[in-house]
Amino acid sequence: MKEITHAEVRRIAHLARLRLDESQVAEVSAQLARILEAFSALQAADLKPAAPSPDTTTAVDRRPDTVGASLPRDRALAAAPDVEDGHIRIPRVLG
Amino acid sequence: MTDLTSLSLSAMRAGLDAGDFSARELTSAHLERIAAREDELHAFLHLDSEGAMATAERCDETRVPGGGAPLSGLPLVLKDNISTSDMPTTCGSRFLAGYTPPYDATVVRRLRRQGAVILGKTNMDEFGMGSSCENSAYGPTCNPLDTSRVPGGSSGGSAAAVAAGAAGGGFGSDTGGSIRQPASLCGLVGIKPTWGRVSRYGLVAFASSLDQIGPLARNVDDAALLLSAVWGPDEKDATCLSTPPPGDLDRPGSLRGLRLGVPRQVSDLEVDPSVSRRVDEALSACAHAGALLTEIDLPHLDLALPAYYVIATAEASANLARFDGVRFGARAAAPDLTALYEESRAAGFGPEVRRRILLGTFGLSAGYHEAMYQRAQTVREMLRQAFAAAFTQVDLVVTPTSPSVAFPLGERTSDPVRMYASDTFTVPVSLAGLPALSLPCGMADGLPVGLQIIAAHGRDGELIRAGRAVEATLALPPVADR
Questions:
Q1: Is B83 a catalytic residue?
Q2: Whether residue B154 lies in the annotated active site
């Protein structure tokens, strides 16, 4: 559990869509190992699963599902880095 | 003439209402103070002198003789993760350099409606991830009481601005202690309300089940004034409590007969002896004033820190997925979409944010989910129940806010684990979703020590009244940097 291989760090970085160069992989691997070691009490503790409290997402009052005003397109797109004809442009995804 | 920047918010209110000074004079005095201290402190990421003066002018023009709206003309600051449609909101991140949100956070809307003068946006650890304000992509903020030390974090910019007299009060956000710890380190009062008490609409999310907006101010009355101006149900945040907030905040609090619980497990955790001494003395003073001190059990208090870091980083890894270089923020040039995500995020995020995203992704990944995330959730539930059991015996629970006073800049930046330990006493409260405040309880080595007072779920009103009573009992001179 305390060992985090470089391959594992690369796998996690890919899942998180974060590019790490090789020196960062080594650094992150050492740091994560140190953090997990410091947190090892969490693994070692004898925990009795407690009956969960009511889920906060079901405890909230739900408002009626009515259509309201939404953000105008130009304002929604104002901060996008690449816009064309009212759409956000990204690199080609297919073919 | 009185130094207007040294007044409490309630004294500013009284002075404005009596016509002793105008909102313009008050705002000018703060802008001058900012000009005098900002080079040294770096509390601001964006200063809106023009907007602030224009709001102050409107307040003066519409002033009702004898009494205005509660916040009208009061100079305030906002942490830079609270969305403002007329000012950049960078969250202390390079990723959001120059980003101006298309709408105001609910908190901002409410502040504007009440005539608050918003001076600017304050520095913070990137996306709220830090306990010293050193993880900002724009450089650290210094503690105005000793500029070689940190102001705490992540709401360090708001805390420094208020402590320096650069603002009358401010707002921060608290995920694991980010209001309470800087309040403690800067000699201020900071309140983290019950989770859901204040709308999170427009607060850039770090860990949604923990994030909560709250005030930083020079005393309990000021903090209560700010909090009550923004709390309450909001249809734009479905997790906002639908019950009305407490209404009788002005009622004086008394310590007589108040049962204060002191967790016996606190002595197992690492605390600077000088901090412990000040907290013990403050509790003795409370007992002398009629409070009943009771030792209570909070089992698994030592597991709160790892559980918090697993849960908060897991939520952060999901929340920060939105920063992908497509709809807002920095975009790196890349040949395909995956590379665009990976490169934009690598270039935009600082080291601590990267570390937390990776730790969170790890804790949720196949093979580790059970050992990390699920166990952390179990600890969270156990803590929640332990607090609920404690509140059947006592009215409030008290601990130090931070295990140490403000530490030197650079002391903990190379050791994340040591930095995380700053949050030992604040994260258990966050995991349980409870309201808590930090107030000054004395000085150690010339720096302020904070006392954390924790109330039962939803009992924000009792918390504020008790805080006021403790503050009156301790009757400390104001912490001044000048």
A1: no
A2: yes
